[in-house]
Prior knowledge:
The chain is an all-beta fold. The protein has a single domain, classed as Rieske Iron-sulfur Protein. Helix content is 0%, strand content 44%. The termini are close together. The structure holds FE2/S2 (inorganic) cluster. FE2/S2 (inorganic) cluster is lined by residues 43, 45-46, 49, 62, 64-65, 67, 80.
Amino acid sequence: MWRRVSILVKVFEKRNSVITWVDNKPILVVKYGDNYYGMLAICAHMGGCALLTDVDGYVATCPAHQAKYDVRTGEMIEKPQVRPDVKCEYADVKAPLPTYKVRVTQDGFLEIDV
Ligand code: FES
């Protein structure tokens, strides 16, 4: 179901990503090339981080332990960096994050298919 969010595409003239909320879920929206991509903004590692705003191209980096995600697919493309001497029970978590289609309305807003 397509849901309109109150983000104008003009926002992407000055940045390449933004987080919005749909149905109480934080969704990272990234503009890469001419396309927009939506991905759940909660890191699969430890699950508590909704701050995947460090985006380079199509790669979003979690600020907590630097896990990297491909926003086009939700795949974790680089594991979290944890201290090797500390056992981390989440170190092997590699579930892809849910992704969402994003489109632009005629009046310049974004819609997300959730
Ligand atoms: S919480 Fe994101 S990498 Fe650890």
